[in-house]
Amino acid sequence: MGFLTCDINRKPTLKLGKNNEEKAGYLCINTLSNQHTEFEVRLTGFLINTEDLLLGVSGDGRAKFKCCGKGGKGDYLKENLTLKAIHWYFTQGQLQMHVHQLQYSDSGVFTSNELFITRVKYDAVFRQKLVMACSFFMSVVLSEIFTRELEINDNYCLF
Known about the structure:
The protein has helices spanning 12-19, 21-33, 88-100, 124-147, 149-152, and strands spanning 40-42, 46-48, 56-58, 62-64, 104-110, 115-121. It is an alpha+beta fold. The protein is built from 5 helices and 6 strands; from the N terminus they run ααββββαββαα. It has a single domain, classed as Lambda Exonuclease, Chain A, CATH 3.90.320.10.
């Protein structure tokens, strides 16, 4: 079909991220813990949504603190850094917030020089579209992959 392929694992920026993920996690936790009182972090593991058992997420961790439970803003947040809605990290974060029932997530971006942390707010409209797309994939696309019903049966028409 003429599609170009690319091994993204060889990209220098991705290598930097993979090689420094643990270091970036500790740096992020350290930065956030200095901004909050009674700050605790725990690994989350895999969590399945109790309302929609087809949705599950595996986040890096979840922080709990008492000083500003509704998402108070600290000096560590960079005003000019935003995570665009078209980026797959945004999608991943929105699904994680939905499953964990959170109103925001602090996302860290680590470079060789600096750590940037930005707050991403839960977007219910985006989440609804995302869940609809996942449901369509599970009920139509995945079903067709396994059964090939549309390919075998001439009574169906896609338009």
